[in-house]
Fold Coagulation factor XIII A chain.
Amino acid sequence: MNMMSLKNQPAWRWGARAIIDKSNSLESNPPPHEKFPTVSPRGPTDEAIRAASLSVLSIDMRVTENKNVHHTDTYKGSNLIVRRNTEFTIILKLDRAFNEQQHQVELEFLIGSSPDENKGTYIIVSIGKEKQDSSWKSRVVAMHGNSVMVGITPDAKCIIGRFRIFAVVVSVLGKERTQRNPDTDFYVLFNPWNSEDEVYMDKEEDRQEYVMNEVGTIYNGVHNNITTRSWNFGQFEEGVLDACLTVMDAGNVPLLFRGNATEVVRQASALMNSQGDNGVLVGSWSGDYSSGTAPTAWTGSPEILLKYASEGCVPVCFAQCWVFAGTLNTFVRCLGIPGRVVTNYCSAHDNTGNLKTDIVLDEDGRMDKSRTRDSVWNYHCWNEVFMKRLDLPDQYSGWQVVDCTPQETSDGLFRCGPTSVNAIKEGELSYPFDARFVFAELNSDVIYHKSNKYGKTKIIHVDTSYVGKQLVTKKHDSNDYMDITSSYKYSEASLKERQVMQMAERRGVPSRKYLTLPEAGVEIQIQTNTIKIGDDFRLTMNIKNKSSKACTVIATVTGCVVFYTGITGSDFKLENKKASVQASKTEPVTIDIKAVDYTPHLVEQANLLFVVYGIVEETETPLTTMRVINLQLPELTIKMSGSPRVGSDLLVSVEFTNPYNFPLLKVELRLDGPGLIQTKVKHYSQILPGASVNYTVSIVPRAHGKKVLMACLDCSALRQVTNQLEFEVLKKELVTQGTIRFRS
Amino acid sequence: MNMMSLKNQPAWRWGARAIIDKSNSLESNPPPHEKFPTVSPRGPTDEAIRAASLSVLSIDMRVTENKNVHHTDTYKGSNLIVRRNTEFTIILKLDRAFNEQQHQVELEFLIGSSPDENKGTYIIVSIGKEKQDSSWKSRVVAMHGNSVMVGITPDAKCIIGRFRIFAVVVSVLGKERTQRNPDTDFYVLFNPWNSEDEVYMDKEEDRQEYVMNEVGTIYNGVHNNITTRSWNFGQFEEGVLDACLTVMDAGNVPLLFRGNATEVVRQASALMNSQGDNGVLVGSWSGDYSSGTAPTAWTGSPEILLKYASEGCVPVCFAQCWVFAGTLNTFVRCLGIPGRVVTNYCSAHDNTGNLKTDIVLDEDGRMDKSRTRDSVWNYHCWNEVFMKRLDLPDQYSGWQVVDCTPQETSDGLFRCGPTSVNAIKEGELSYPFDARFVFAELNSDVIYHKSNKYGKTKIIHVDTSYVGKQLVTKKHDSNDYMDITSSYKYSEASLKERQVMQMAERRGVPSRKYLTLPEAGVEIQIQTNTIKIGDDFRLTMNIKNKSSKACTVIATVTGCVVFYTGITGSDFKLENKKASVQASKTEPVTIDIKAVDYTPHLVEQANLLFVVYGIVEETETPLTTMRVINLQLPELTIKMSGSPRVGSDLLVSVEFTNPYNFPLLKVELRLDGPGLIQTKVKHYSQILPGASVNYTVSIVPRAHGKKVLMACLDCSALRQVTNQLEFEVLKKELVTQGTIRFRS
């Protein structure tokens, strides 16, 4: 006899925790028949038996009509898609006329494998004689013959995902349920059109851009030479919505959290990268992408999401920041959360969170690569999502930063955000999530240390304006960028900026006090024109003497190649210069750079970094500056013949000529365009020096309106040669034939 | 020719991320000799060569003297242990007298495998002719012959952990370093005695209890029958400090975070449990603990932490909330963070975070176990830690809740907190970490639903005062509890309480509006005396009629066994009662409970749950209530013979008699007491009915002062029979002998 023996209990009830349902793809459903216990000794009345004999023959989800009302008609696929807190109507076909006084029909909406009325995963609404309280609203809209049209309004906070529907006839005898029918499954999404929804956006033009636009422009290059590439978000493409739900299932996001936009976005920022949780994309900056697709080669997200979902949730190789941001943007827009891709130029990657980026120069004024561990990214892409932050005071609603590029772990997973842009601007960094990290990306100081011959370093210069130079995102109805720097930062050196820094320090940012450094009175700026990759060019150092005395400057200029992450590669140039500068004058000093010197060393995205370390001879005060130069890539041409019209053939050709004296090997050419074609990939084993390739495809536009065709050529020796072509697709030509009758 | 070929770069520099050092046990050290490049064409001067020839022979860490000053003399072990921002002194033994004008000596302090001056993992201080800025302060305290006493003050925010020290003689020729010597390794801890440290505590009596006390009392049982058990925190025991650092290494806590008490505690709350990160303890509530030690059988933390650290960081089996909280308390006190164990009686475990605990009664008024998924724990233990929250506005510093029992994932890992007690009290739930979860544990409403025969449920009663009934923690200098409920909650039904609920709703807690329920005008309370396990007893339901009319109440009483987590087991009693109650009177209704009915069903910790569902016949309004009864366990006696004195033998015996008519099998008896003995475990294969066991051990007290000896008997049929014995250990008897001389 054992007093404390185990009892027979359902497994989920054991221990401290009940089961938490984390999958939208698993399901469990109630039985088709449920018999009630006998009601009275006399048995059911004739009337009761008549009421019981009602049958639901079918459910018409009115897919086309409802999708039009719910702004979901652009989604491909045959199932209904609706948005929260807006009514949709379905038609129940019965075997007899419905009688509200006599009959009782319930509609059940289920999600997941453990539906529970108290958890929002099992919703029951009723029509007929007995009303039931429910978070979803229902009403009889119309009755016609044996059909009833029922209006259903999912509540403004309901879980988003794929729901199952059952119609249940309830009588004194029991419940009779319709059969499980996947055709009547429907999706509920966030609703930016509804003011009760946390993702509500006021203006239709904003919703059109941030929810409905299927293509976008991502900005890269460097801050004074902004370049662009188009991106196919393709959130409405066939299978993309299911893929987004699969991502959440694979990431074990509890269904309970899926009605909360803040939670969905936070989880998604971890799930877009593979680190820690086998998320969608494998980040790689290694230069060797032969085991997958190079980050620079992608043209859009659908290819990535569909590959991930269809191949058993194995992370897709490879991504860098714009691929992460582009894919997350698809994810949020697809689920109905307004989102956009933002580029931060000169983005600090601060390993320590101390708001300092330390650059160590060696004895000779060159960057000491073994001691410089921080870096400033030429640009870094993240996302903004728009939502009410129910968990925060009101003023922190609005745009939120989310960054899914794996940089640092936030609370154990590689993710960052959502964090309020307003809070970042005000230095109010206590609120979740990861505000200090984002603040550092924008507001770090660059500290130049110089070591003497004994290896002892001292700070020679602090640049408080290098980082977070400019933030941009795409304008509405244009591929131009909109400068949104002022939504993140007060202007440099303003009183308000200093107050924000003080606030940030009261919120846990380490105080940044430096010894006062001697003012050199002299500045150096580096200047160039646009330079094509493979060209010789001239660099001008403008030495500006702001003092009232002439001075002599001795400067060391180092040139090295650099990744867009600010990580430096090989040096290719080291030159010493000496110049005398009159009081209040600027003296240009030129340095000639030969293509033969830099081309053998170039790394992805073809950036060169020049670091200048100088000394004013008279005062012995040090000077330093750096500048990244982004070389211009060869051209890719897209041509079209024929006039674009839905359903009509159109010929598109992409042309490229290898301008180099060496062959390009294993070249990948991608062609993409939502509403036009599914991503096409063409492989060339080599393109010989001076040779041209021409890739021509025939496409049949599937939708009218403004469309973008984008092309990207990529190989290990030449990355990210892109171009895009925009054009208007006309509506299908109406061929009027005698046999077709039109309504007048 | 490949333009974009990979360059030779150190591996950690590839990609977006630099290496983050996450281990205090791995190390890399600078070379013993570093030669500088030749300085001048003439070579070094004679003077320079003389300066270079200084040698450091040894470093005396002055362990005993420094430990006394730093309140670390109670830690076992031979290495120095100091606290931040307080000076410690070391003596450098040189081969000649030190000359401050001529010589230059640096002291280097290193932690981890990637020491970096900019990251706080490589600190250099200097004495002699050339000063160097450093976060740690240094000064020459005294010189005597060839020795120099140097005072060193680690900064108030420095990383805590085990540091290595090197002395370096710097000359024009280069650097000469002392050899790596593990004997001079020293530990830096948080410093509650120093007002610059974020864990500063004002009062010495608080520091003595929350940092220095090695034993504590944990409260369990039920809120109206609070029981206690002693716990050996043993934070100063040999090996425990190293084990705590090993826990952080195993959990990959970046060294950079280890100077930040908030981060250390947050990481620790995840690392104490094994879920997700192979942390210290495996939580189990299964009832079958045969593959490890039952949660109820432990007497303290050192046994657990030492087992984890010595057996390759394999999670230790098994724990429930008090074991988690006791072990985390050891961890924080050991590192110098003030901490205490708190018990919350009637702690809601809210799966959905909606602040509702749903109890579903079936048609007959019994708890419907398949539909009741939430539970209220009879009690739940968590920790409080005391610190300044540098990341939050000032008013949220002070005591913080940390809960390492795996209940829900917080941001991907099972952890909770730290969250400010002040913020919880005010309903200011936006700030990190996990405030809403803790708020729910304290403030959830219990909602009673009743289903009709068709399975349709409706709410019949809302109890807003059942949850978070009382919070207690140990008093100073006493085993009695201190009621700290008012530090978490304003009084029930006060204006301030309503305002806090409104604030909580503005911070993301779902609004809790219920339909107004009819007032029954009648209350039921369940009353009992103390009941010994195995006794028959009588339960009294007091039916209180608050109305001015007589009424009749029909009630169903269900009795079932229940785990301390509120998860219910088998029913053993179902009784219907009917009673007439006069206006404004209370009518007692008794129910007799037989031991034979409940004993076969009992589960751990011997709790019974009674649920009453009633109906007032005249008005048809429902009534409901529940109560948990904790049965009293048999006694364990501890006796001592001899007078306790350091270094003298002392006999201790623990006695137990099996009061049952069945044998107790595989019984484990633990004896523990910091400063007295290391944990001893005695196994009995069985104790026959009526048989007694007597376990006698001889112990030799190692330290004087108040000591606690604790015993715990545990087997699967009888859990957690504990007792403790407190006594004063006298100082070692001084045997005065003629040969020993005393200072006057």
DSSP finds twelve helices and 40 strands in chain A. The two ends of chain A are 88 Å apart (CA to CA). Chain A touches chain B through 98 residues (CB under 8 Å). The first helix of chain A runs from residue 46 to 52.
